[in-house]
């Protein structure tokens, strides 16, 4: 998948303050080594909520170091060398080695007990890069561009209303049992132009569910497109069964092609470019003057080194700016 018109190698946030945080992450060690409960807590706090955290317990950092480099732009990686029973209870694991996947903003976490061969470990990481139910917006679309899984997309009127929140809770349960798919949702109120691409207008009965390939094709499920208010779980199960059995109608998004739709948003790209310039200037002025986040500090982190230098990070952002 790809989204034209957005820098191809940038996965971070677009707000200026979060951009600075992202840049500091970008030059931090690939794998942080944590030697106490307090170091674990401080690492999680410093990591923020924009990216998932993968934390190994009883794992050698060499086990995840290659994947930490590969997915550095999309997640935080760490290994805890020393921790108490309270940490085991907090992160809900009862033996080691274990890898915890943590989505702080959504208060979601899961545990992987292996096998820890790279193939299985990478599969675990890929399946846990996103929360169980992913809000669809321009930032998350950029994150999705390298994932070839189909997206079960629920279109609601307003993501924040009670009915939608109830639907999202059920989507999370479905996502947990169907890791080969991504479950996302978007509100007409939050992003009307995007929802109109899937033949949604004022007459459309919502919530509406489709399966989207992340580009220009999507599938309506015969007899299961709209979700009624009662027995939502059963309806979603039937929707997934019908999709897997091929009871679908293939369609293409309406209006502009999706690629052109994203590419046409010149004002957004201009603002994005300006924010990048401001963020880089702030970083240059502040780096070395303010104490860096606890992540990567000598007393908590083994400075095995970052795969990306400060200079490379700034050069990357400048190159991204030129692409726009």
TrEMBL record:
<dbReference type="GO" id="GO:0005783">
    <property type="term" value="C:endoplasmic reticulum"/>
</dbReference>
<keyword id="KW-0472">Membrane</keyword>
<keyword id="KW-1133">Transmembrane helix</keyword>
<comment type="similarity">
    <text>Belongs to the protein disulfide isomerase family.</text>
</comment>
<dbReference type="Pfam" id="PF13848">
    <property type="entry name" value="Thioredoxin_6"/>
</dbReference>
<feature type="transmembrane region" description="Helical">
    <location>
        <begin position="266"/>
        <end position="288"/>
    </location>
</feature>
<dbReference type="GO" id="GO:0006457">
    <property type="term" value="P:protein folding"/>
</dbReference>
<keyword id="KW-0413">Isomerase</keyword>
<dbReference type="GO" id="GO:0003756">
    <property type="term" value="F:protein disulfide isomerase activity"/>
</dbReference>
<dbReference type="GO" id="GO:0034976">
    <property type="term" value="P:response to endoplasmic reticulum stress"/>
</dbReference>
<keyword id="KW-0812">Transmembrane</keyword>
<protein>
    <submittedName>
        <fullName>Disulfide isomerase-like 5-2</fullName>
    </submittedName>
</protein>
């Amino acid at each position: 998948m790809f989204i034209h018109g957005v820098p191809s190698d940038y996965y971070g946030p677009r707000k200026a303050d979060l951009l600075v945080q992202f840049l500091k992450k970008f030059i931090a060690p690939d794998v942080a080594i944590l030697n106490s409960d307090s170091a674990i807590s401080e690492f999680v706090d410093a990591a923020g909520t924009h990216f998932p955290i993968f934390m190994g317990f009883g794992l050698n950092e060499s086990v995840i170091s290659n994947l930490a480099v590969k997915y550095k732009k999309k997640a935080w990686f760490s290994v805890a060398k020393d921790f108490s029973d309270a940490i085991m209870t907090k992160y809900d694991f009862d033996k080691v080695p274990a890898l915890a996947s943590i989505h702080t903003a959504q208060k979601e976490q899961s545990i992987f007990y292996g096998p820890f061969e790279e193939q299985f470990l990478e599969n675990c990481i890929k399946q846990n890069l996103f929360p169980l139910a992913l809000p669809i917006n321009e930032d998350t679309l950029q994150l999705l561009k390298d994932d070839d899984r189909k997206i079960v997309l629920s279109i609601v009127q307003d993501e924040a209303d009670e009915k939608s929140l109830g639907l999202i809770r059920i989507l999370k349960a479905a996502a947990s049992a169907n890791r080969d798919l991504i479950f996302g949702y978007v509100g007409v109120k939050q992003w009307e132009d995007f929802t109109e691409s899937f033949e949604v207008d004022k007459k459309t009965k919502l919530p509406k569910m489709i399966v989207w390939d992340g580009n220009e094709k999507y599938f309506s499920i015969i007899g299961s497109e709209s979700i009624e208010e009662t027995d939502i779980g059963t309806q979603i199960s039937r929707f997934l069964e019908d999709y897997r059995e091929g009871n679908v109608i293939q369609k293409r998004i309406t209006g502009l092609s999706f690629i052109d739709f994203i590419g046409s948003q010149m004002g957004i790209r201009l603002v994005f470019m300006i924010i990048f310039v401001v963020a880089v200037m702030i970083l240059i002025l502040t780096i070395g003057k303010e104490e860096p986040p606890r992540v990567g500090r000598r007393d908590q982190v083994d400075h095995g080194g970052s795969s990306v230098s400060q200079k490379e990070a700034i050069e990357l952002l400048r190159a991204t700016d030129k692409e726009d």
